[in-house]
Here is the input.
Amino acid sequence: MFSKTAFAALSAAIFSSYLFVIPQTLAAQVTVPASLQVLDIDGQPQNAAHTDLQLSNGTHVLVVRYRDLFADSADDSGAWVTSEPLYLNLAIKDQQPVQLHIPVIDDASAAKTYLHQPYLTVGTANGHTDQLPLRTQASVIAELLSAQR
Here is the structure.
């Protein structure tokens, strides 16, 4: 027969493997570019830098901040370009991996231009791509107010 300790260890091993296997099948892996800092996911503040997220099926609201360093000249330490918090509505339909991409930005001027109308390209493993806007808090509030009319 099994001792209580052996039974407890075996039960814990089986239970923990069940917990770690099931959530992975119910969530899609979302890869975030390094120049985007994830601030919030569905109202839950994020403290760590994320480049890979696990998101379940459904629509999620991600709050991100664009931040990148560009070298102005060889003798300069560079210039940071940082956005205000930007909002993304991201729909996860199946558990396929999803990659978020920003356009290629070569300098601080191009980054500032991009931030006037920021967007992400969302790609899935099956080759489907969409362009989704990144919206400022002001534009989100304006849309909510106009929808209430």
